[in-house]
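Entry:
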Amino acid sequence: MNLQQLKIFVQAIELQKLYLVAQKLDITQPTVTFHLNKLQEELGVALFHTKSYHVIKLTEAGKAFYHYARKISALASEAESMMDVYRDSAAGKLAIGSTHTPATYLLPPLLERLKSDSPKLTVHLDVRPAATIMDKIKQFELDLGVVSQTRIDDPNLIVQPMVRDDLVLIFAEGHPFAGIEQLTLEQFASHPFISHEEGSISRQLVDDWESANGIKLQRSMEVSGSEALKAAVQCRIGYGMIAEASIRTEREEGKLLSRPIPNWVSQRYIYIVQHRNKLVSPAMSAFRELLQRQFQIA
């Protein structure tokens, strides 16, 4: 059993097609098949239900083996990336995981500064839900994460809050709310509301606020992305509630107006997250310093 076999095995599970594995690893498909067969022969146990690999379906032994193979493969990649830092020909890699709001509205200018300071550094930004990012950090597939979440309680992770990620009320110029400085709860219930999709953290926060204040919003539309929600509000389909960081440009340009949400209780923050046992590279340190200076955190 060797690292090449483990890497091919992991990629076969994740990509589900051997020709895609071959393309990604720049080898031939017969070589992929050879290594998978050799791995199972050396282990003395079947990892897949079929020998043809037309359908990639793991046996119980295969599922157990994948748990370890994924970690070993990720650690091997991490070790290679760390050595890149110390080679004259490269400046290493930095794999960042982020949820949508910080990835879209907060990180780009910081990454521009990072790249300006380290032009040879290769940055990979993986935009996923918070749970996926934290799982990838725990599997050593990401160096660190910048995630928007209500609470993170995991003994394997070092978690540092950076900034509050509150929702604010947004509406277009000309909306009835535009001329009212102090909105009442009854006024919220009297106008069409554009909602986040069910299952999102923002939707849950709004649902909790709605329940706590004993009102029923008029949901006229449900969308699954911040940009779509802002566009719908600008078209005067209704008003919305959205992360404050996501409307800075539109607010400055006068495309959207905003107000604090009455009786809002802060529950969500943007956190820096990394594995407790992660070896900190120079690139990680440089990026953390940028975040700490930007958000004035210790």
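Strands lie at 93-98, 122-127, 144-149, 157-164, 167-171, 192-196, 218-223, 239-243, 257-259, 269-275.
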